């Protein structure tokens, strides 16, 4: 049997870190996973999963400010950024999936992600579309988060790449992201299965 040894983890760094955002029902988790799969090495960092790591005293963000919930919101963003930087160093393209609609939250991500510039993608179908999608999916939302659309359009309207994906398939949305950003440019892409 071959001896097991430590192998180098880091290699040529990945070219980008993506942050896919939008209000619940915008398709960010599905699109983030599909985008990560387009790269030879890609990772989908679902920030809600990082929140679930807190098994005692966890506080999810709500419509009203709450100090502990807000602190944990930034904690999970910091953890996502640390994970993304680690993936970049290892040559894996990280795709962070989080609801980021307020400028201080976005600014925090921009400072916390340090290995590459942050490539922001805002999925912005109309609120009626996200409300319908939320009703149709298995994931039950306790609150109506459609008010976040107004906050997003008011706070970060000139940030990143905005895509109205209401009439686009997941693959078409990912194609548009790659076309607009020029990241990947067809290199290192995994063929899409239909």
At a glance:
This protein has 194 residues and is α/β, with parallel strands linked by helices. The protein has helices spanning 28-37, 47-52, 67-89, 103-112, 127-136, 147-155, 170-181; strands at residues 17-21, 42-46, 93-97, 118-123, 161-163.
Explained architecture:
The protein folds into 2 domains: 40-117, Rossmann fold; 119-185, no CATH class. It contains 7 helices and 5 strands; from the N terminus they run βαβααβαβααβα. It has a 5-stranded parallel β-sheet, sandwiched between helices. The termini are far apart. The chain has 194 residues and is of the alpha/beta class. 34% of the residues are buried.
The gross shape turns out to be globular
CATH architecture annotation of the largest domain: 3-Layer(aba) Sandwich
CATH evolutionary superfamily of the largest domain: P-loop containing nucleotide triphosphate hydrolases
- Side-by-side strand order of the widest sheet: 2-3-1-4-5
Could you give the distance between the termini? 41 Å
SS elements, strand count:
5
Proportion of residues in extended strands: 5-15%
Helix proportion range: 40-55%
Helix and strand element order? EHEHHEHEHHEH
Q: Given the helix and strand composition, which structural class is it?
A: alpha/beta
What CATH first level of the largest domain would be assigned? Alpha Beta
Keywords: Transferase
Protein name: Phosphotransferase
Pfam family, one: AAA_18
GO molecular function, one term: transferase activity
């Amino acid at each position: 049997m071959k001896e097991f040894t430590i192998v180098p983890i880091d290699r040529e760094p990945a070219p980008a870190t993506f942050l896919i955002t939008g209000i619940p029902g915008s398709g960010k988790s599905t699109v983030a996973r599909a985008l990560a799969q387009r790269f030879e090495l890609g990772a989908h960092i679902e920030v809600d999963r990082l929140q679930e790591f807190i098994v005692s005293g966890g506080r999810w963000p709500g419509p009203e400010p709450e100090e502990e919930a807000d602190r944990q919101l930034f904690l999970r963003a910091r953890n996502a950024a640390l994970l993304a930087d680690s993936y970049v160093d290892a040559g894996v393209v990280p795709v962070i999936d989080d609801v980021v609609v307020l400028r201080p939250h976005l600014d925090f991500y921009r400072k916390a992600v340090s290995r590459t510039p942050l490539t922001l993608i805002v999925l912005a179908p109309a609120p009626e579309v996200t409300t319908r999608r939320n009703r149709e999916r298995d994931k039950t939302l306790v609150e109506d988060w459609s008010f976040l659309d107004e906050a997003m359009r008011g706070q970060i309207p000139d940030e990143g790449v905005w895509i109205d994906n209401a009439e686009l398939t997941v693959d078409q949305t990912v194609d548009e992201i790659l076309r607009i950003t020029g990241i990947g440019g067809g290199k290192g892409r995994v063929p899409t299965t239909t």
